[in-house]
Amino acid sequence: MPRPNIKQKDIEDAAIRLFASKGLSRTTIRDIAAAAGVTEGALYRHYPGKDEMAWALFVRELDRFTRDLGDRLFDPLLAGAGRLEAGIRFMYGYYAEDPVTFQFIMLTQHGFPGEKLLNEETNPNDMAVRFIAGLMERGEIPAGDPVAMAAMVMGLVLQPLVMHCYGRLQLSPALVDSVVAAAKRTMGLD
């Protein structure tokens, strides 16, 4: 009789929590097994190793996140300002609902080897550049370097969440409103 998938979910949930809190390099298979309440062998039945597990979970969670973010950023029914606001509010809502997974996605992405490449469609950096380039092409914002603009806006949007992760900033609806307004000003959408 096959083992229930509940153990795999327990393993994956424990791994995401540990990768988000300890980082990829400091998390061991033993840590994950202990946190999931399984043997180390149970992990190897699902994944060849820790790095492969981390990458598979990262890609899966990032795909889920960026699919929903993309629905907002590229919504054909909204103008640029509305799409930007919808994207930012989605990110802050996602963080509020599942801070551990958000931290896993955002704070561990640089811990993977350089040869690991994300799909351009689901890479948040590429998505932001495409969004901004589209606004520039349609004349909704001033022409410029979409990569530089994406870097500035992403810093403005993400840094408050990082500061909250480290306990240095409280999140509130007023803060989200301020982030939205600042991003719109930075992009010339106000």
Strand content: under 5%
Please work out how many helical segments DSSP would assign: 9
Helix content: over 70%
Quaternary structure type: single chain
Mean pLDDT: 91
CATH T-level fold name of the largest domain: Tetracycline Repressor, domain 2
**Any idea what the CATH superfamily of the largest domain is called?**
Tetracycline Repressor, domain 2
Largest sheet: none
Q: How many DSSP-defined strands? A: 0
Entry summary:
The protein has 190 residues and is mostly helical.
What would your notes on this structure say?
The protein has 190 residues and is an all-alpha fold. The chain has 2 domains: 47 residues, Arc Repressor Mutant, subunit A; 131 residues, Tetracycline Repressor, domain 2 (Orthogonal Bundle). It is 70% helix and 0% strand. It is built from 9 helices and no strands. Helix 1 crosses helix 2, helix 4 runs parallel beside helix 7 and helix 5 crosses helix 6.
Which keywords apply here?
Arc Repressor Mutant, subunit A; Tetracycline Repressor, domain 2; 9 helices; elongated
SSE layout:
Elements: H1 6-22, H2 29-36, H3 40-46, H4 50-73, H5 80-97, H6 99-108, H7 124-137, H8 146-165, H9 173-187
Helix pairs in contact: 1-2, 1-6, 4-5, 4-7, 5-6, 5-9, 7-8, 8-9
